[in-house]
Amino acid sequence: MEYSPPTGFMPNEIHIRRATTADLSEVGRLGALLVKTHHAFDPKRFMAATPQTPAGYAAFLKTQFDEPNTTVLVAEDRGDVVGYSYAAVEGVDYMSLRGPAGVLHDLVVALEHRHRGIGRRLLEETLAFLEAHGAPRVVLSTAEQNGDAQRLFASVGFRRTMVEMTREL
After folding, report:
1. Nearest Cα residue to 5 out of 169, 129, 115, 134
2. Alpha helices, DSSP H only, in 85-146?
């Protein structure tokens, strides 16, 4: 099913830009949302968010700001950060059996701003960054239960290549 924005939606109200230190509090909150969402999908597989998760996420992403082959982008709606993406161009990874690639680590949009094309805009800008930085391909992981994300990624040409399986011991 092709997505169409709601009537009255103004796509130019959304601005995609590089994250700054001023965005860290909101990006940390969105990172915690990502953790909570995955934990709700499968609490045995995904870690639970704690009160420290937003600050921890923010602190980690801040370390990525100055990495030349890494990007942290935010989606801003009328001055409010409503989503972010985090991706990097990485070298050979023998554990993943892959050559150099762009890796999309995170893409999240605040719940109340979903289904407005914001995730797609973040994804497009992230892919453009990775291509401009020489990534020959882009890989990502998405939770099995996250059908919305899988449809978004498939709609821009991603294909399934791996299946993660988990067993408790």
Report:
1. 115
2. 118-132
Q: Is 67 exposed, middle or buried (0-12, 13-18, 19+ CB in 10 A)?
A: exposed
Cα three-residue angle 1-151-97, rounded to 5 degrees: 150
Residues 158-168: pLDDT tens digits?
999 999 999 99
- 3-class DSSP state of 90: strand
Question: 45: which residues sit within 8 A by CB, 6+ positions away?
Answer: 38, 166
| pTM for this predicted structure | 0.90
> Which residues on adjacent β-strands are paired with residue 87?
71, 104
pLDDT band at 7 (very low <50, low <70, confident <90, very high): very low
Give me the helices (H) in 7-160, please: 24-41, 53-64, 118-132, 147-155
Query: Quick one: 14-155 is in which CATH superfamily?
Result: Gcn5-related N-acetyltransferase (GNAT) (3.40.630.30)
The number of residues making up the chain comes to: 169
What letter does residue 13 receive in the DSSP assignment?
G
- Domain map (residue ranges) of the chain: 14-155
